[in-house]
Write a structure and sequence with these properties.
This protein has helices spanning 11-16, 20-34, 54-63, 139-157, 191-202, 208-213, and strands at 2-7, 39-43, 67-72, 85-90, 96-98, 114-118, 123-128, 162-167, 205-207, 222-223, 240-245, 252-257, 265-266, 269-273. The protein is an alpha+beta fold and 275 residues long. The strands form 3 sheets. It has a 6-stranded mixed sheet with strand order 3-4-2-1-14-12.
């Protein structure tokens, strides 16, 4: 089976936008469609609480005619059009969708950050982890989220194996970003966030990319939009992951970043497994 995860930074822009960046985003979305993955996990969809309009739904249907979708957007008291996640899955799959709250600090559970699909053999969880924010203003809440999320995933793993993916907003090790020396108090590379991710792995999960590629450096999934040369210079961070239950690690065939061309921000990541 093949899985793809991508922080798309506005599904609306990808489907109906006319800007040069929207065109680049749409090109990547078309490339994803061409992979014929079994499940596609999208984060930061930024859709309204009511979901896609008719034009957007038609565009999704045209790109992914063989897929059903499960989605959740932010709702009160969370900001409108903030965060949001969506899972596209092949129509021939037996899937039960859930949109769990994990008891995170308000309004994180209302920001549309998670979709979990239950399939006969495993759970598939996609997540858009909250960012610690400018000045680390949300770091304490982020630490609570990390604990609650790990507890939730551990609970799933007690029932059946888990494949979890998404934008985890943390570079776990120094080799997961280009300039660790100057970022130890930057959101996404604080000791607290890295410890939270270590704790997540300790419940019985494997970072599939490291499982396949070992300690390779210079492999990133995000490059800052605000720095025009970030992608050209490969000054990036690896903050997007596919995590799998330890008992599934022998089934991993591929775990890699997809080429998103000149578009900066996140690039899609791909996992292929043989069950």
């Amino acid at each position: 089976m093949k899985f793809i995860s991508w922080n798309i930074d506005s599904l609306n822009a990808a489907l109906t936008g006319t800007s040069p960046r929207a065109e680049l985003t749409r090109d990547v979305l078309k490339k994803i469609a061409g992979e014929d993955a079994d499940i596609i996990a999208l984060q930061e969809t930024k859709l309204p609480e009511a979901g896609m309009n008719a034009k957007q739904s038609a565009a999704i249907e045209e790109l992914f005619p063989d897929y059903d979708c499960a989605w959740i957007s932010s709702g009160p008291p969370a900001r409108k059009g903030y965060a949001g996640t969506m899972a596209l899955y092949k129509k021939n799959l037996s899937v039960k969708a859930d949109y769990p709250g994990i008891g995170a600090p308000e309004p994180m559970d209302r920001e549309g950050r998670m979709v979990t699909l239950e399939l006969p053999e495993f759970f598939f969880n996609l997540v858009y982890t909250p960012n610690a924010g400018d000045g680390l203003r949300r770091l304490e809440e982020r630490q609570v989220w990390d604990r609650k999320y790990a507890e939730y995933i551990h609970g799933l793993d007690q029932i059946k194996p888990v494949i979890a993916c998404g934008d985890y907003n943390v570079a776990h090790q120094e080799i997961d970003l280009a300039h660790p020396e100057s970022n130890h108090r930057s959101a996404g590379f604080t000791d607290e966030e890295r410890e939270g991710f270590t704790n997540l792995l300790s419940i019985g999960l494997v970072d599939s990319f490291r499982q396949v590629h070992g300690d390779i450096a210079g492999a990133y999934s995000w490059w800052a939009q605000r720095v025009r040369s970030s992608k050209i210079n490969n000054s990036g961070w690896r903050i997007d992951y596919f995590l799998v239950s330890d008992r599934l690690k022998s089934s991993i065939l591929r775990s890699e970043m997809m080429d998103s061309g000149p578009r900066q921000d996140h690039t899609p990541i791909l996992l292929e497994m043989d069950f």
